[in-house]
Amino acid sequence: MPAVTAPDWTVLPRTVAARPDAEDRQVVSVTTAPQGYEGEGFPVRRAFAGVDPSLLDPFIHMDQMGEVDYAPGEPKGTPWHPHRGFETVTYIIDGVFDHQDSHGGGGTITDGDTQWMTAGSGLLHIEAPPEWLVVRGGLFHGFQLWVNLPKADKWLPPHYQDIRGGDVGLGASHDAGALIRVIAGEVDGIKGPGSTHTPMAMVHATVSPGAEMTLPWRTDFNALVYVMNGDGYVGKERRPIRTGQLAVLGHGETITVGADSTQEGRHPTLDVIVLGGLPIREPIAWAGPFVMNTKAEVLQAFEDFQKGKLGTIPSVPHAEVHGEFNPDD
Prior knowledge:
Helix content: under 10%
CATH superfamily: Jelly Rolls
Low-confidence stretches: 317-329
Largest sheet: 7 strands, antiparallel
Number of strands: 26
């Protein structure tokens, strides 16, 4: 880790050094992600747990999956499950994940790849390590982000974007002390390949020990910084932040992230996910795998799923599809 890098950061496009009078975003809150298990039992950190949903909009949910080094026979995924009303963004840093859905979509993502799935009107979906990886074991580390869709787009047909690691926009901080990978959106002219229904930016940055990066950020976007590994700080006030913590930032023109001079041996750098988007500001009714605008729409999604209207899996009887969900949960 990281899978996508550049041998010489000094030759990459540079972000412009912040103006002395630029308004840097101050930290609103820092929360620590609780740890749990997802799917068939792979470990996750719930990055948004305990955060006011209005500060996350247009984002709904994010899990850091792993980092875990599986022994042979241990790798796990998810069983078949439904989605409707939002997009899932699965970013794999280390390891391999196979995806398949009831519409015939899917594929394999590995080592810096991203799969952007617009669930839209609904589908059944499965994510699992390939059989050869289950047999062999190995390192697994990634993220899954849920991005809300505005009401007008919740009934779009399901759609995939397979973004290869080599396609992400690469740049460096103004002094080349940080490597910036833009997966979606644009940061100071560095563009990511992800096409989004909701205007947003998603960045994976690696900050060298003792270095500091300042990213220009759209003033109409919110701003979130999640630390996947390492120790450092956020904001000009240098608010400490460490592995598994999320910083929510206030209004401003720039985002500042710095790495402590000394990092722990397993991860010699600070790695962060930086997110921002244009808030949708619509009512949210969320239960299980459905994110809609009203409770009635969520109940309809459960009913449609149970009737097989979100799709069926030819090789798996519908009754065995995971998630005979209770809409009251």
